[in-house]
Specification:
By secondary structure, the protein is mostly helical. It contains five helices and no strands. The longest helix has 21 residues.
């Protein structure tokens, strides 16, 4: 039985925080980031702008609409179409090897 006697030298025996990601997890995250960046770059400007204002800049759709000079409804449509296009782009460029590898891992 191990007792806590306030010995700070023994504290290093236990890990602190969350474990570091595995090399595979790092590679997957890097690949996903690259693919999302390429898919965003391929979007028409009005859709890319809508996504970036809301998702990256953190604006509410109504605020993004004001920035773009359009109605809130028009911004919501742009966001919906942008998300659908981004999803389609990522699905179409999904690499069979990565999908198969992911299925083996999970």
């Amino acid at each position: 039985m191990i007792e806590d006697a306030g010995d700070v030298d023994g504290v290093g025996l236990w890990s602190r925080g969350t474990p570091t990601p595995s090399p595979l997890e790092v590679a997957e995250a890097s690949e996903l980031e690259r693919r999302v960046g390429a898919a965003l770059a391929a979007l028409p400007t009005i859709y890319r702008e809508a996504l970036l204002l809301v998702a990256v800049e953190g604006l509410r759709p109504s605020e993004a609409a004001t920035v773009c000079g359009i109605t809130g409804q028009a911004m919501r449509q742009r966001l919906s179409r942008a998300r659908a296009l981004l999803d389609r782009q990522l699905t179409e460029t999904d690499l069979p090897g990565l999908t198969a590898l992911n299925e083996v891992i999970t």
